[in-house]
Design brief:
Elements lengths: L11 H9 L11 E2 L11 H9 L14 H15 L9 E4 L2 H12 L8 E6 L3 H9 L3 E8 L5 E2 L6 H6 E7 L11 H14 L2 E5 L15 H7 L8 E6 H4 L8 E5 L1 H14 L5 H11 L3 H22 L12 E5 L4 H12 L1 E2 L1 E2 L16 E5 L4 H18 L1
Parallel strand pairs: 1-11, 3-4, 3-6, 6-7, 7-8
Antiparallel strand pairs: 2-9, 4-5, 8-9, 10-13, 12-13
Helix pairs in contact: 2-11, 3-11, 4-5, 4-10, 7-8, 12-14
The chain binds pyridoxal-5'-phosphate.
Length: 396
């Protein structure tokens, strides 16, 4: 057996199952889950139509590099969304969702034969970063996010000797679970560090289209171009249709950036079997080429957050995030007790923040917080918020 498998941590939802074992949710309320961050808005018809119109594609093996038309659709979207030009032949690759791409990219980049191979993860973070790092034979180093600076990751806290052995860093902007968007000056700092120490930046941007401010979130490639780095040296941006187009089951996204990284990544994927079905490719082209459904989707989230956030901010330490579909709220006291008692008394599921972060440098930056995914329809989210308000008021 691969010994690194035993280094993997239980997934947050397994820990939640254990926490809830033996709890009987109040039967007077119907269950509402704000636990899992899975999009639940309807899949647009233009995507399902494209899927059914292209079923003939099931009869042939797809190429790992994808059809030129898909890479061109991805490049066209990057141009319209960020004003960024990429070469579709050398700087773009389709992937089967960003999760597998985050994992596979880590296996491609990390050289575990180099002493102290280290990958930096924000803390709290999406657990795939850590699992991908461990299975690549490297050591994760957790960098805490700072609630006093809109949950910006405290890169300044990383010692020079850690940077010196860092081979890759994960950034997540908009962030899961914090919803924070990285500003240009933070990108500038990371690019300078990458130039000094030679590490790769894997920029996870799968929530980029769900945002609550006028200005759309800055993307990694966009930041690079603004800072005069149009070759995207050592940068890969990973994006996805799952949240943008409500197709988490389709498994479709793409990566774009440094051609010198895309080339070995394509080689890795050829052996790994990372090709995307041409049926999914056809539906993905339709999705990337349409913005109307994305605007409608964003408006649904905006309405929901506008209704729910004021209710909860009256009783919890929470504010409207920059983007993504989570509320990352401070609760007074233990996050696990909060989640367990809320389920028992009001039949609402939330995720304890400590399950989304690691204890590192003497503290767990998720402790005392909960993550609420506002993915259900508005009425259900509002009802959940009203129950949470009652719960908090009954505790104090
Ligand atoms: C931060 C983050 N990155 C990546 C993913 C993976 O999404 P997908 O594989 O559907 O693109 C998720 C899924 O929830 C996520 O929260």
């Amino acid at each position: 057996m691969n010994p690194n498998l035993s280094r993997l941590q239980p997934y947050p939802f397994e820990r939640l199952k254990q926490l809830f074992a033996g709890v009987t949710p109040n039967p007077n309320y119907r269950p509402i889950s704000l636990g899992i961050g899975e999009p639940r808005h309807a899949t647009p018809k233009l995507v399902t139509d494209a899927l059914t119109a292209n079923l003939a594609g099931l009869a042939s093996y797809p190429a790992t590099a994808g059809e030129p038309a898909l890479r061109e659709a991805a490049a066209g979207w990057l141009q319209r969304r960020y004003g960024v030009s990429v070469n579709p032949a050398t700087q773009v690759l389709p992937v089967n969702g960003s999760r597998e791409a985050l994992f596979a990219l880590t296996q491609t980049v990390v050289d575990s034969s180099r002493p102290g191979a280290t990958v930096l993860c924000p803390n709290p973070f999406y657990q795939i970063y850590e699992g991908a790092t461990l299975l690549a034979g490297a050591q994760p180093y957790y960098v805490p996010s700072d609630p006093k600076r809109n949950f910006a990751v405290d890169w300044d806290s990383v010692p020079a000797e850690v940077w010196a052995r860092t081979q890759m860093i994960f950034t997540c902007s908009p962030g899961n679970p914090t919803g924070a968007v990285m500003p240009l000056d933070e990108w500038k700092k990371l690019f300078e560090l990458s130039d000094r120490y030679g590490f790769v930046i894997a920029s996870d941007e799968c929530y980029s289209e769900i945002y609550f401010r006028d200005e759309p979130p800055l993307g990694g490639l966009e930041a690079a171009v603004k800072l005069g780095r149009s070759d995207f040296k050592n940068l890969i941006a990973l994006t996805s249709l799952s949240k943008r187009s409500n197709v988490p089951g389709m498994r479709s996204g793409f990566v774009a950036g440094d051609a010198a990284l895309i080339k070995p990544f394509l080689l890795y994927r050829t052996y790994h079997g990372g090709a995307m079905s041409t049926v999914v490719q056809a539906a993905s082209i339709a999705a990337w080429n349409d913005e109307l459904h994305v605007i409608e989707n964003r408006n649904l989230y905006r309405e929901k957050f506008a209704r729910v956030t004021p209710l909860l901010s009256a009783v919890l330490d929470v504010a409207l995030p920059d983007a993504a579909f989570y509320l990352w709220a401070g609760v007074k006291g233990s996050d696990t007790d909060f989640a367990r008692d809320l389920l028992a008394l009001y039949n609402v599921t939330v995720l304890p923040g400590s399950y989304l972060a690691r204890e590192a440098h003497g503290f767990n930056p998720g402790a005392g917080r909960i993550r609420m995914a506002l993915v259900a329809e508005t009425a259900e989210c509002v009802e959940a918020a009203e129950r949470i308000v009652q719960f908090v008021q009954s505790r104090t």
